[in-house]
Amino acid sequence: MGMRAFSVGLLGMIYLLVWAFLSFSVVYLFLNFSLSIQWFPLKILTAFFSLFLFIPLVVLLFSSLFYRAWPFVYEEGTFEASLRNERFLSWMLRGFIYILCFEFLRITPIFPWLPKLFGAKCGKEVFIAGKITEPPLTEIGEGSIIGGEAKLLNHVYEGKKIILRKIRVGKNCLVGDSAIILPGVEIGDNVIIGAGSLIPKNKKIPSNTVWGGNPVKLLKKAF
Fold first, then answer.
1. How many other C-beta atoms can be found within 10 angstroms of the C-beta atom of residue 183?
2. CA distance 182 to 65
């Protein structure tokens, strides 16, 4: 392993340990406070709000700050999936924080705001119920909806390489349930992507259209 890759790995491990210590400390303090209350109904109520609101909110804020403060930012491109590669290590270690936070918070009411706090560029009245793998490489226009279990995959593996690209979704779009959007895709305004559809890498979807299928095909123009 090269010195630069070793330095990135070492910094990443220290970074993760500090993040984990602070996050678990907050969880411990909140739960300990809840359990210390003597009146049983209030104890149950406080524990409930701690588990489903206060703790998720604090962990989200800690995690998003650490994620954004990571000194090696995401860059579009293709790189080797190897622990000897500093870009791969940086991508993996930074993503680890986001994935853990994503899985921990997906059953909480603050889940739709998760990608925004982690760097996704979203317009007004955007609702996200699906998964975005690299928020800093994602742009979603105002009024758009990302359906449940839909996946915006900013990266794909091809052999021993990782391809990392931006995904852009225009204004007033609807990405249906369980749809999959691959790296480099650009979707225009007022577009509907049917449930379960697959949009291949680097495909450009024009505005005012309806698409569906695997892979997607044009179903309707100028609705």
1. 22
2. 27
pLDDT mean by block of 10 residues, the chain; 223 residues = 68 79 77 74 74 74 80 82 85 84 73 85 92 94 94 93 96 96 97 96 96 94 71
CATH superfamily of 120-223: Hexapeptide repeat proteins (2.160.10.10)
Q: Give the pairing of strands 155-158 and 161-164.
A: antiparallel
Place of tokens 């970074």: 15
Residue 67 has a CB neighbour count (10 Å cut-off) of 20
Measured distance CA(188)–CA(190) in Å, rounded: 7
| CA quadruple 187, 192, 198, 200: dihedral, nearest 10 | -20
Q: Tell me the domain boundaries of the chain.
A: 1-111, 120-223
pTM of the predicted structure, to 2 decimals:
0.81
Q: What is the pLDDT of residues 54-105, one digit of tens each?
A: 777 777 777 888 788 777 677 889 999 888 888 888 888 888 888 878 877 7
What would the DSSP string read from start to end of 44-109? Answer: HHHHHHIIIIIHHHHHHHHHHHHHHH-SS----EEEE-STT-HHHHHHHHHHHHHHHHHHHHTTST
Q: Using only the alpha carbons of the chain, give its radius of gyration.
A: 20
- Give the Å distances, CA to CA, from 126 to 70, 140, 141, 142, 143: 26, 7, 7, 6, 5
